[in-house]
Amino acid sequence: xxxxxxxxxxxxxxxxxxxxxxxxxxxxxxxxxxxxxxxxxxxxxxxxxxxxxxxxxxxxxxxxxxxxxxxxxxxxxxxxxxxxxxxxxxxxxxxxxxxxxxxxxxxxxxxxxxxxxxxxxxxxxxxxxxxxxxxxxxxxxxxxxxxxxxxxxxxxxxxxxxxxxxxxxxxxxxxxxxxxxxxxxxxxxxxxxxxxxxxxxxxxxxxxxxxxxxxxxxxxxx
Length: 222
Fold this sequence. Notes:
Radius of gyration: 20 Å
Strand content: under 5%
Shape: elongated
Distance between the termini: 66 Å
Order of helices and strands: HHHHHHHHHHHH
């Protein structure tokens, strides 16, 4: 049976991390809930790790999950040709590809669910209560997630636009829907399935940016 080089790289990394932290595979099994035999097969390159395995390993070994995903051969954190990080659309597309290939994401179903939630939040964003929630809770939520995710910069910019007095009402509603989605943690996709958590929030930002880029109905008819 041939063994993939990436599996060996991940196995070497796992063994090194266990040694550095004075942890046995049995102890890691107790912490993660993953069977000891499964951990052993992954560490010895005899079994490919699943995304949820890698998430659990990272959480309990104290390393960035992206590092384990890269060692396991997943294509994450791609960069553009000029060396700059990919934009949000490329980042989200990359994450979705991994999840779809791992049978962890029904892309059409997820996108439709996110659209439904955004439509609900559009109306709420124009209420006094919704606006107060955005103004009071956005910054603390960003701190809570430690600025993680390929979409945080876009959300910060959206927050700045939302706070401007001269923003159009329909644009304020769209901006507010993405901000409320992020603040209220709808979590259509459970965070544990991928190292870059809050994927559905990133999809929400992607959808809202797409709608903001479209011309107003009145302007498009002139």
